[in-house]
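The protein record reproduced below.
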Amino acid sequence: MVNRLVEMYEKYGQSPWIDNLSRAWINSGRITELKDLGIRGLTSNPTIFANAIAKSDDYDKEFLELIKTTDTKTAYWQMACEDVASAADSLSEIYSNSKGTDGFVSIEVDPELAHDTNGTISAAKSLWDKIAKENLMIKVPATREGLPAITEVLSMGISVNVTLIFGLERYREVMEAHIAGISQARQAGHKLSGISSVASFFVSRVDTKLDPILSNLPNEGKALAGKVAVAQAQAAYVLNQKRYSQKDWMELAQSGALVQRPLWASTSTKNPNYPDLLYVENLIAPGTVNTMPEATVLAYLDHGRPVANPDDFEEHSAAIFSKLKDAGVDLSKASEELEAEGVASFANSFKELLAALETKRSSL
């Protein structure tokens, strides 16, 4: 029987990653099991850590010891960094065998720094030094203030997962920030083949945002429901292929630089009326990553199959964008709103996590 995750990578060139991490996964060997199933990387975010730490007793013993000598926030970062380091060790073989393209574990800087360039740079450097794993990626948000931080962090030789990308305009800026960072890293004498980056393009939330608007339009507009998110991600892939074939990048590639791959994030289907693999099957393309929650991973293993041809991405996305424009829907505005909402959501998750830990601290 064909292992669909292995096939996704070996036949179609897309790396399946998983979007989750917990101490229970580490202690039970679940990460190793997922690796054996074909998972090639792992991502985390504040919401994931909030669920893992605040809603279980897996961390209580360590937390109790840490709070004897430190504050709650510092204790959180200590526990999160330990989890990420352990997961990185579990995936290190993939990192070595893939020559530094897969086998990564991502950790996000404090989400409250999303609009603080210097704070983000400092936090990224601190996490990189603390965890000290070559297969670590530091998540930096693609906010206006995050763009110069992306360049600066990469220039230090640190691998970066650019997160919270919701629109094509911002994605273009992210690619330029990446290329500038790699150029500066070369000037600083860093080994370019040791600096990896992915650009996390959030997919399903686009449809979640636009579908209520489209449902109130006449038939042409109504028919676009559930189609815009895939079209925009496909257009991002086309932009990636074009930008990383230009002369300035090719010169960096000759020095060992690695292309910043598009990473499809938020790929579980939120609308129960849509196919469960809508944001996976339609976005399989060479040189990309899809980070999925566990349920989506298992669904793909069970019945997933590629349904789109990357050669058709440009024509398909252009047709959807044309209809969207005719319907009077402003995709750029929606992208800006989604970015603000995404930043706020992760910041709120982080605040809720710290509040839950304060409560737990009082009870232990």
User: Anything to note?
Assistant: The mean pLDDT is 96. The CA atoms of residues 161 and 180 lie 15 Å apart.
